[in-house]
Every structure is written in structure tokens, then in C-alpha cells.
């Protein structure tokens, strides 16, 4: 009798574990790939993948490329919240841009996915929600350091980094 109860208990535990795994695997992201940069000085192209999450974080706060390289940057949102609640974008700012001023104006630019009017940006992705991604291609600017942020209201304090161009 004890053996039967033991086997039933093992069966129940194994079955529950399988159901949890099946539920976990039902949610799939469109374009989630490994983070990182594929770039070297000899290459004319750089591939950058940045992940963002529902925790208001980019998984990288420093990116390195070389002047003139063609950059293909993919932003993934690995969270589950919609873009109306927890939207993210990647906005690369020009060198002399006042970050606080730009971010304050961005909060008011809802109709333009939080990109304010002006010429302070080099490039940006569209605003994305959980499970979404966006890819942009651009040429690396001249040597220097460039700030990138998420312009969704209140995010730039945590979601920022620097693109270093050598």
C-alpha cells in the first residue's frame, strides 16, 4: 500500500511540474535574441541587440562601435506589459543635447510616441510593448560619446546609457 501511495505521489509531482513548464513556454517573444554587440574595427557593420523589461531597465548601459560603421540595432521588450503602460524605445541623442530638458519635453509628446519636436536626436526606434521588438539601421556618428535613453514618461532616469564611438 505504501508503494502505491509513493508512486501516486511521484506521479502527481511529475505531472504538476510538466504543466508548469507547458504554461511557462506558451508565451513567446517575437524576436528575442541574445544581447550584445557584434562589432570589430575591421567590420563595416555592427549588430547590436538591447533588451528592455517591465522593470524599466536596458540590459546594457554601454555600447561601443566605430566611426562610420553601419549599425543594425534591435530593441526587444522582454516584458509582458503593453506599450501604453510600460512602453520602451531607444533614442540616441546628439552630443550637446540637454538630457533633462529633452526628457521633460518628451513626456509631453504623447502623440509622437514621446519624441519631442526638434533636432536633438540622431535616431530612435518606435515605442514598443511587451513581447515586441523594433530594428533600426543607421551610420555611427563621429567619434565621441552619445547618450541613449527611453523617453516613455519617467523612464529616462533608469533607462539610459552611452554609445561610445571610437
Note down, in words, how this protein is organized:
This protein has helices at 2-26, 83-86, 99-107; strands spanning 36-38, 45-52, 62-65, 70-77, 91-93, 121-124, 133-139, 144-149, 160-165. The chain has 166 residues and is of the alpha+beta class. It has a single domain (36-165), classed as Sandwich (Immunoglobulin-like), CATH 2.60.40.420. Strands 3-9-8-5-6 form a 5-stranded mixed β-sheet, with no helix packed on it. It is globular. The model is unreliable at 2-35 (pLDDT under 50).
CATH topology, anyone? Immunoglobulin-like
Overall 3D form = globular
Structural class: alpha+beta
Averaged pLDDT:
84
CATH hierarchy: architecture: Sandwich
Uncertain runs are 2-35
Q: What level of helicity do the residues show?
A: 10-25%
| Strand arrangement, major sheet | 3-9-8-5-6
Number of helical segments with 4 or more residues: 3
Strand content: 25-35%
Short structural summary:
This protein is an alpha+beta fold and 166 residues long. The protein has helices spanning 2-26, 83-86, 99-107; strands spanning 36-38, 45-52, 62-65, 70-77, 91-93, 121-124, 133-139, 144-149, 160-165.
Summarize the topology.
Elements: H1 2-26, E1 36-38, E2 45-52, E3 62-65, E4 70-77, H2 83-86, E5 91-93, H3 99-107, E6 121-124, E7 133-139, E8 144-149, E9 160-165
Parallel strand pairs: 2-4, 3-9
Antiparallel strand pairs: 1-2, 4-7, 5-6, 5-8, 8-9
List keywords for this structure.
166 residues, alpha+beta, Immunoglobulin-like, five-stranded mixed beta sheet, four-stranded mixed beta sheet, 9 strands, globular, disordered N terminus
